[in-house]
Specification:
Strands 1-2-3 form a three-stranded antiparallel beta sheet, with no helix packed on it. By secondary structure, it is of the alpha+beta class. The radius of gyration is 19 Å and the shape is elongated. A hairpin with a 5-residue loop joins strand 1 and strand 2. Helices cover 43% and strands 12% of the residues. It folds into two domains: 43 residues, no CATH class; 68 residues, Arc Repressor Mutant, subunit A (Orthogonal Bundle). The structure holds zinc ion. Zinc ion (ZN) binds next to loops.
Amino acid sequence: MVLLPVQCPKCQSIDIVKYGKTSKGKQRFYCKNKECSCHTFILKPAYRGWLPEVKQQIVEMNLKGKSIRDIARILGISTTTVSNELKNFYRCQSIGNDTEMYVNSDIAPLSTKLEKPG
Ligand SMILES: [Zn+2]
């Protein structure tokens, strides 16, 4: 069994127990601190896949020839997230000028980053 450093988002208590799952299958936790108003909460590691820097890494790795499976394993996110991100990225690319602003602001530090590694 792996002990995760789960902390209550409200009272920061680490006196936390697992408390079943949500309807979407996410692990729910229960804060045992009786004075805490939080009671149950859900961690949000799934959101990691949507951080701009993660999106960027997904695209960069894909451009370097890594498979969706490889990328998912390296970044510790699901293959679904990776494939959705790539679909999203390439769809934006192919639509053309109208979406260029979105691509630039959201993902495209890509080209500048490749020129200046580190
Ligand atoms: Zn709490």
